[in-house]
Amino acid sequence: MRGVVMSIMLIVDVCGKAVPSIGHAPWNGLHLADIVMPGFIFIDTLTVGLDLYTFRAPGILQRIAVCYAAAVLLAKLVSDLSPNDTVKGALKNNSRVLVVGLLCIVINWAIMLLGPQPKGCPRGSLTPQCNVASNIDRMVFGPEHMYNPLWDPEGLLSTLPSLATVALGLACGKFIQSRPSHTELLRLVGCGLLLDLCGMGLGIVIPVSKVLWTPSYCLLTGGICVAFLGIVSSRVGGNVVLAPFKWLGMNAISFFCLSDCSGLFSCLLGSIYVADPTTGNVLYVLTKGYTQAPVMLTYALLQLGLWMWICRWLSMQGIFVTI
User: Fold this and answer.
1) What is the pTM of this model?
2) Do 217 and 242 fall into the same domain?
3) For 148-161, what is each residue's pLDDT tens digit?
4) Membrane-spanning residues where (predicted)?
5) C-alpha torsion 307→302→231→321, nearest 10
6) How confident is the model at residue 270 (pLDDT cuts 50, 70, 90)?
7) 8-state DSSP, 118
8) Core vs surface per residue 104-121: b (16+ CB within 10 A) or e
9) Is 65 helix (H, G, I), strand (E, B) or coil?
10) Rounded distance, CA 53 to CA 272, Å?
């Protein structure tokens, strides 16, 4: 699953500006790029639940990552769940974590409705210029320390509902740890789809906004993550389809570094040519129409294929770069 999210990240980086549906939604809405961050949060907290018994809590990343720290604290609430517990036991223990996640959403939304509203703005407004979350960020950090003077996509208040994604990832990690059957994994897919339906229904009343991490956005992206986890865990499509993404997931750090080596990839494409090395190379053919969405998507997929092959080689050699 991590490999799929990393693949989406690369496609977003390359094609996001050229293809509106791939780049971030301007304010409201859900585009492909808006799934990446909750996907990473979901996966990170998923692994906390899987590895808590050998997990070293102190560390640099843990100290600076609020969501990761919250996952560790929430994991303590289900610490009585043994690695060999049943699915029923996992569901019973996870209910407390999910309640905490739900409370985070409710508290955040209450603050959004009742918190300090910007001057001249109607209460409950969710526009870029008028919303409580951005106003709190301006009060705490100041406009000069924000992504832009109006709003910040990783603001203070929007961190609270993101903890609901943390809770969901942790709960799913405990569920997977209980070794569910194929039927139970398909039910997990059903739960994810149900969350998606709730998110879409709530989106009629509350806009889907990644910047504000609204309840509708939280439910919708959470449902996508849960459903996809169930699909991947049940191996729908077979190992052949999932193997390339497994290579990326096992070498996520290597892939992350490679994905920033677009210059190296461009040099490689420039060295492949037919007839004329200047105007007949692959890079020239692609960059000639680089602003066109299909061409950029092709470029991204070619780059993704190369990095997949390198990660496969690393996996075959038993080389895994971790932090």
Assistant:
1) 0.72
2) no
3) 777 777 788 888 88
4) 98-115, 185-206, 212-232, 253-275, 295-314
5) 10
6) low
7) P
8) bbeebbeebeeeebeeee
9) coil
10) 50
